[in-house]
């Protein structure tokens, strides 16, 4: 490090006036959590979002059937007991509109709207080395400066658009699933969907109700778990609201950040077959609970994982009339282990294929897509005519939003440059070479119930900033050795899990779905609870992963 330059930067940082103490991008769960915790720390905060409404991913993903896969009562922010008590969820899994309404309610109730600037796209964020501050630039050329720059852009938000020849020639609407046109009338229309992941699993049963036909082009089948949607009853609501502290504690202490009971203290491989079957059956009550509340070894032991895969496959098969379709829809352990791809939750997807107007095309082994034409999709065998084509082709997870425009750190290096080969990060929250920059749920954070992780990240960030403000510090620089240590630990754990098989089946959890980058370790799989412990320990020890220096900006 150039110490002369550093001390000059610190001196300058102490004199430079900024527009806001902190600038964040993304007015979803992360943006609202940041406003709460940073405002509590006494900072001036501005959150920018290019959307026209608060909601983050829930402002964009408005495709028919969009709903949460976490259960409503713990898919929420927990900083206000008043809101937890006042807000009424209507369902086990709220739909997009209800979730977005909840976020708007939080923003209004907590008087956050004055901190949020909508309809504003950020096209560059740059660390100004001479002054030690950050400058963001909007698409209309305005500049805003801040001491702390924070991404709340979400880990599954930047669409992965496939390169299929002829895409621009299609005459009807063709769009990515997360950009569903709100006013699109699809009743009576022929809809083609490319991709068969969690999004498609949610949208097909709803589209099938009124569309003339729905045709899904599938490459890789999924282990599909039942959602088993149900209404929130007054009794259930009373019970949740009387026990919210316990619900929050369960999330904080769960490997997946969810309000599940764990560990259950038994392994599938040590359980006699009849008893195992009974436990599998009794817990087949919907959500990811089944994976975490039956046995402790389903995601660790290949033998146990195979048992789980077989059970799920048999359950899926019971619901599909045409066994040739079932063969296409059901993966086996020999294809890939359960959770090497993130399993979707189902609200009637499998039954939809029992309808004559819902079709499945195997584009992996039978008829790969050749091109998109003016009127549809041509495979190696047929031409399918459509009025609407949906690209439900997933996202550039964890890093995509951070690489979509230049985020420029020390030495003019962008995050995109830095992450060409590996997506290194310190605990998913900050990156060496990017002083005073924080990320909510960045690469190498866990994949978990997102509001839980978001809030834990926002708390760590706000504690770090509180320390800097209290001690009059200008800069924090994530240490390269801390980044290397976290990267090595994350890779080591990842290599021991069955999720490492994800690269064989294009799993976004390894960035293996991207056409522009090689697969990589993107997720800390050591358990969200242990990750939250690591964040707490870091804060308690005064953030040893960071090098602090200088006097504070004005
Ligand atoms: P996804 O799981 O990544 O699925 C994308 C699909 O598109 C896959 O079937 C993939 O096939 C296919 N695909 C990609 N590129 C293709 C190409 N060039 N040609 C043909 N097919 C192609 O994406 P997603 O369904 O949007 O879900 C992503 C994640 O978002 C989920 O796992 C979940 O974490 C989140 N999500 C959450 C919710 C919720 O919680 N409510 C709802 C929806 C999504 P391959 O599998 O062969 O690559």
Record the SSE blueprint.
Layout lengths: L2 H13 L4 E6 L3 H12 L4 E4 L8 H4 L20 H6 L9 H14 L6 E2 L4 E7 L4 E6 L4 E9 L22 E3 L13 E5 L3 H13 L2 E6 L6 E2 L7 H9 L1 H9 L20 H10 L6 H5 L8 H17 L4 H7 L15 E2 L2 H4 L5 E5 L6 E4 L3 E4 L3 E3 L2 E4 L8 H4 L3 E2 L6 H4 L18 E3 L10 H22 L3 E4 L1 H16 L32 H13 L5 E4 L5
Parallel strand pairs: 1-2, 1-6, 2-3, 4-17, 6-18, 7-16, 8-9, 8-16, 9-12, 10-11
Antiparallel strand pairs: 4-5, 5-6, 13-14, 14-15, 19-20
The chain binds NADP nicotinamide-adenine-dinucleotide phosphate.
- Low-confidence sequence ranges: 1-6
Question: What is the overall number of helices?
Answer: 18
User: Distance between termini?
Assistant: 25 Å
Radius of gyration: 24 Å
Q: How confident is the prediction overall: mean pLDDT?
A: 95
Which small-molecule species are bound to the chains here?
Answer: NADP nicotinamide-adenine-dinucleotide phosphate
